[in-house]
Amino acid sequence: MTDSFWQAQIQALRRQVSRLGRQLRDAGLPRRGHRPSPASGHGPQALLSRAQQAMRESEHRYRALFEQSSDAVVISDSEGRLLDVNGRACALWGYTRPEMLAMKAHELGPGGELPQVDRAGRQLCDQGSVVFETVARTAGGAIVDVEIIAAYVDRERGIIQSLIRDISARKRDQDALRHREEHMRAVISAVHDVGMFVVDYDGRMTFVHASEELERKYGMPASDCDGKRVDELYAPPEARKRLEMIREVFRTHQTIRTEMTTPMPLGLFWQEVTLSPMCDDQGRVQSVLIFLRDIHERKLAQEALREQGEQLRAIIAGLQGMMLVVVDGSGQRQFVHISPELESRYQIRAAELVGVPVQESYDAEEVARRLGYLRGIMETGEPLRVELTTKYPGGTFFQEATCSPIRGPKGEIIACMAVLRDITEQKKAQEALRRSKEQLQYIIDNTSEIIFQIDLEGRFTFGNKAVERVTGYRGDELLGRTWLEITAPEYHAILQERMARRKAGLSVAQPLEYEILDRQGRRIMLELTTTGVYEGDKLVAVQGMARDITERRRAQQALRKARQMLVHAREEERRRLAGELHDSIGQGLVALQLSSRVLAPQAPVGDGVGLPRLSDQVDALIREVRGICHGLYPPSLESLGLRSALAQLERDFQGQTQVVTSYGVAGD
């Protein structure tokens, strides 16, 4: 402190001591004739000396406390002049002691009017002391949060002593805590069924918050619990149970999670409660954070599911090859029934699946797919039918799942029920059928035969690759066209008649040879065989198989022509042979016969018998040659025709063999 200030204080104390001395002397005057001994130590002078000594000791102690204080101490008057400051004040503001003693109190602030300072000044005048928070500006211009405790030490003279404490760190911590609390409140408020409490070791709630919906549901605002112990909120047995859980967290530093019922003004409610330790920097548990979620509806739904599950179990007990699963909105299986047949095949029991979440049963991709189905049903309420591939201990199986929503008492969707039918054998059969179809399609696509199908209007509905290869039309170009569009005009009537007979249920001649026109207009001869396609007894289409016989037809025509040429050559040869036999051998034999007849009368006696016999033999040869010539090429065949030639052949045959024959000509 300044010397003048302390001198004034000492003078004031001396005046007080002088007044005290006078009072003592007045009170301690001896009676007439009696004088106290100075050595007795009880005289006014001795009392005054002791008071002065006590004053000096008090001054020394006060000065030591003033300088060693951990808070800044400022002595000022009512005009704001600084009378004295300690070292901590100089360190707080960054000024030297002389610099501060030359300043006024308002110069230590940030400048401008501060409402809290004005209010504190009025309270100091009214009550003689005040505690308030404000800000100060240091020599470097930094703004510091401070807490000030001010009081009059000499009201008559207007002397004020102020203790100033730097609370910047505390303010930062408070702001951070406030921000965290606001953030936590915002998060909790956004969740409709959540509450949060902070409790100490004795079970007293130091912080409470619950969503508005939860407060309305329970009929109790969270503020009613603030500052209360658990034994003030619950009956003794329930309070003991909750306090034991709180102290277990303090003791073990472990989080506890449980489900429990809590009595509220509007009834008994199920809650999922999580108790977590809140530790300081040294790891000591300072309090316990209780985070609760209302699961009352879920518990009611689970109970309803359990009851429905028992009913369903009774219903489906006799079903074979079926599996029934009830899953809640989180994916947890609440009820499972598997027929004995499937339990044996899958090598799994229903009890092993109850309570197991879907997330723990499949890989990530399959979990995402199945939870997607579940969310869709829970959100839309629409049933769903899907095919699933599921791995069990017994192997991989195919299932057809029919999924339907399950609704609660208020109509809300609380779960999903899936009826799964094993279709593994069906899938295997379908796969075998698919492979068979692929093989058949391969054969159809690679066969040289044309395979097609037309509807009852004659429009193409199917054609294999051979159709494209033979006609030159692509498959998509043929579809929708009629078969008459690519058929030679002279065959239209024949094809229309065959279709009419098909529609009438009559048979048609098989096969049919007809010509079509390819994309370039060339004629192609086909050999066609058709059959009807029926649905029940109703004709719906016609299938056909055709073979390109153009080359075969050409070969047949060439063969027929060659045969005709061969027959003609043979006939010509027979005619030539018959002519040569008739003209050469026949005429020679006639000449020989005439010669023998001329020579017979001139023969010597004894040879007359030989010449007539020779003549007879020549006659026989002539007849035989004529028969051969007639057989090789009958003259009547060329002059009278086939009918007359055949009649002549019959007569000659009867004459030669004496066998009775007859013949006829078709059309006679």
What would you say this structure looks like, in words?
The chain is an alpha+beta fold and 668 residues long. 47% of the residues lie in helices and 25% in strands. It has 20 helices and 20 strands. The protein has helices at 3-27, 44-68, 87-93, 97-101, 115-127, 168-190, 212-218, 230-233, 236-252, 296-316, 340-346, 364-380, 424-446, 465-471, 475-478, 492-503, 550-599, 610-632, 635-639, 642-657; strands at 72-76, 82-85, 129-137, 143-154, 159-166, 194-199, 205-210, 256-264, 267-279, 285-294, 322-328, 333-338, 384-392, 395-407, 413-422, 450-455, 460-463, 512-517, 523-535, 538-548. The protein has a five-stranded antiparallel beta sheet, with helices on both faces. α1 (3-27) packs antiparallel against α2 (44-68). The longest helix is centred in the last third of the chain and has 50 residues, at 550-599. The protein is rod-shaped. Residues 29-40 have low confidence and may be disordered.
Quick overview:
The chain is an alpha+beta fold. The protein has 20 helices and 20 strands. Strand 6 and strand 7 form a beta hairpin.
